[in-house]
Amino acid sequence: MNTDNHRKELLQKLSRNFMISVPVMTVVAMAGATAVSDHGPGLIPSAEAGQGEAEGEAHSEAEGEAEGKSEGEGEGEGEAQGEGEAEGEGEGISEKMKAAVQRPSDYQPHEGDARALAEKGKALFSDTSLSTNGLSCQTCHANGAGYADTFSKDYPHSVEMAKTDFGLDQVTLDEMVQVCMVAPMAAQPLEWDSEELAALTEYMRVEQENFRQR
Ligand code: HEC
């Protein structure tokens, strides 16, 4: 019981840290786009702290949504300032990568036994060789950590990171796997017809069930 609580606490801390990198990117991008707007001083300090070249053209299309999101992102702000290194990588997601995380028109997923796929996906989930930065999915998502509440909804649905960084209004589950491959994992998307993608997607279905039952 005690150790359980302790673990939960650690995980929450961990996930909070990771959650922050996303809001920070958003805040920085928004501050770039709306620095002179009426959001008050709240945004400015973290914008300065995090300011690299993040607010360039890549994010200018976020301007329209920036208003609506700013209150929601607020929670990350306070702690965001120390996170200098986290936001660099997400800022420059190319149009090509944005397209590459979306199902292709000739999408033909690998098919296989769901159980066997989930089993494989579970192994891949902790495989750091999928990323270019030493992370595995597990680094952020161990024991159900690191997900926003949207994870409990049926797919397709809207996910903050997919919207902010990739401009996608809605994602399917396999697209969400690809989003996490590209952004937090700093890797190429998996092949759309690969067993790996099918396996990770199937395992995420299992994890979604667990998440719903928490
Ligand atoms: C550096 C941390 C990090 C890593 C590594 C990571 N993710 Fe995520 N993931 C996140 C964050 C942050 C969110 C929440 C995004 C949001 O709600 O805007 C998330 C959300 C998700 C979601 C749920 C989205 C929803 O519906 O709300 C899935 C599924 C997911 N990740 C799968 C994966 C998979 C599969 C991997 C490995 C290939 C992975 N993640 C690696 C940080 C990470």
UniProtKB/TrEMBL annotation:
Residues 73-92 have a biased composition (Acidic residues). Keywords: Heme, Iron, Metal-binding, Oxidoreductase, Peroxidase. SUPFAM superfamilies: Cytochrome c. Residues 56-72 have a biased composition (Basic and acidic residues). PROSITE patterns: CYTC (PS51007). Residues 116-208 form the Cytochrome c domain. Residues 40-115 are annotated as: Disordered. Transmembrane segments: none annotated. InterPro entries: Cyt_c-like_dom (IPR009056), Cyt_c-like_dom_sf (IPR036909). The keyword Metal-binding applies. Gene3D superfamilies: Cytochrome c-like domain (1.10.760.10). One of its GO terms (molecular function) is electron transfer activity. This is Di-haem cytochrome c peroxidase. The lineage of its organism: Bacteria, Pseudomonadati, Pseudomonadota, Gammaproteobacteria, Pseudomonadales.
